[in-house]
Structures are given as C-alpha cells and as structure tokens.
Amino acid sequence: MIDLHTHILPGLDDGAASLSEAQRMLEIAAGDGITKLLATPHFMAGWFEPEPAQILAGVEQLNQYAIAKGLQIRVLPGMEVALSPEVPTLLQKGRLLTLNGQGQYLLLELPVGDIPFYTESLLFELQLKGITPVLAHPERNRLVEENPRRLKEMVMRGALVQITGDSILGKFGRRTRKITQELVKDGLVHALGSDAHSSQHRPPVLKPAAAALAKLLGPEKTDIITRADKLGTFP
Ligand code: FE
Questions:
Q1: CB-based contact 180:216 (threshold 8 Å)
Q2: Rounded distance from Cα 121 to ligand 1 centre (Å)
Q3: What is the pLDDT of residue 235?
Q4: How far is the CA of 42 from the centre of ligand 1 (A)?
Q5: Ligand 1 mean position, distance from CA 141 (Å)
Q6: Which residues contact 70 (CB under 8 A, 6 or more apart)?
Q7: How far is it, in rounded angstroms, from Cα 217 to Cα 204?
Q8: How far is the CA of 164 from the centre of ligand 1 (A)?
Q9: Residue 52 class from Cβ within 10 Å (0-12 exposed, 13-18 middle, 19+ buried)?
Q10: What is the pTM of this model?
C-alpha cells in the first residue's frame, strides 16, 4: 500500500513533534502494510514554508532508520501545497516539491470551506506545464460535500483525487463518509492517504480504510487505489 499523504517529518509543519515520534509513525505504517509513504509537509505561505532540501534530508534520515530497523517501508519526498494563485510562480522558483520530486504530480489542498474562483484555471495551468494536480482529500471540503459536481468536472479534466482513509470510516462525520462513498463508487478516487500528523492522532494506518473500499469496489479496484496505480510507478 502507498500512503500518499502524511505529515511525518518533524519540525517542518504541524506534523510529527520530534524525530522519535516520526520513527514511531514509520514503525506503525510498516506494521500496517504500507510499503511506500509520501512525506508531504504543508506548504502554506506565511505559515509553513519548508525548503525542498529540508524535506529531502528528513526523508533520507527516516529511510536510514527504516533500513537500520529492517522495516519494509520507504519514505518518498513530497509536499501538500495549499491552493493559491502563487502556486505556478512558486513552482517555477523551485520552492515546491512534486510527489517524489518527479515533476509529474503536485498534491494540492483546497481551502476547507471554499473552492476559489481561480481553481480550475490554476489546475489547467499546471497541466499545461505537464503536471497532474492531485487534490488532497477534497471530500473534506464543505462545498464539495454540498455539491460534488464541480469536483467531478475537475476529475473529468484530468485531476486526480486522494482521499483521507478516515473519511470512509466516518471519522469526519456521516456526511463526509457519504460523499466519500459516492466519490469512490463513481470512480473518482485514485489514491489513499492517512494524513497522519502523529502516532496518536490519526496515525499512518490504511488497512481499515482499504477494507471499507473493498466492500464497495471489490479487491481489484481497491488495489488500484491502494497502490496509487493512476500515479504511475514510484521507485
Ligand atoms: Fe495534510
């Protein structure tokens, strides 16, 4: 399984509080059967602005721990980039990290209560640069919840969707679970992320969510999501 969205790196955002906490999270993820985990600290101008080099160093440090402990898991670099009109400029300046630094997929977070008017044109601008936007847990956006059609249109135009595992388990409430189930059944979900911030609160665990997906989709379509097949192959 691939966990496409975690805040495992310490000291960069509101995620892991320390290196030992990050190591605990890595052990939990490995124990859950997660084999690749993307470290995606927030990039939110004015709040969190991690440097790509810091992320790469943090990932390296955790991978050394995984190797030393014989954990069957590898950490890959990424970012969860808050949607803003500055995203293309930041990208051009090398301030943002695409998933695994491959220059192909950018994990983008919509604001919780809004889908800004420029969203679609921004996604299109990224696509013109050869970058596929991956929307981070849009099922938790209030407007998507009220009216999923705008999200569906974005997906029809090539955006991908990562849901939070806990959404399908009802941990964000019944309405979020219901919209998540609808998105899943409509084939609009492409990857799972734990969005883990610590070993206690929403830990990096995906198995229960994968089981819930399998009930809706059957095992084969579930595997396509848990391996994030739509995002190609991560090394
Ligand atoms: Fe997140």
A1: no
A2: 23
A3: 67
A4: 7
A5: 13
A6: none
A7: 22
A8: 9
A9: middle
A10: 0.96
Cα 39 to middle of ligand 1, angstroms: 10
Rounded distance between C-alpha atoms, residue 119 and residue 151, angstroms: 10
- pLDDT value, residue 234: 74
What does the pLDDT look like over 14-38, one tens digit per residue? 999 999 999 999 999 999 999 999 9
CA of 197 to the centre of ligand 1 (A): 8
Contact assessment for residue 38 and residue 99, using Cβ atoms and an 8 Å cutoff: yes
Amino acid at 130: G
207-217 helix and 219-226 helix, angle to the nearest 10 degrees: 140
Taking the centre of ligand 1 as the mean of its atom positions, its distance from the CA of residue 169, in whole angstroms, is 17
Over the stretch 137-173, which tens digit does the pLDDT of each residue have?
A: 999 999 998 888 999 999 999 999 999 999 999 999 9
The reported pLDDT for the residue numbered 233 is: 77
**CA 166–ligand 1 middle distance (angstroms):** 12
Q: What per-residue string of b and e applies to 8-31 under the rule 16 or more CB within 10 Å gives b?
A: bbbebbebbeeeebbbbbbbbbbe
Report how far residue 85's alpha carbon sits from residue 83's, in angstroms, rounded to the nearest whole number.
7
Asked if 81 and 108 touch (Cβ cutoff 8 Å), the reply is yes
CA 128 to centroid of ligand 1, rounded, Å: 25
Ligand 1 centroid vs 130 CA: distance in angstroms? 24
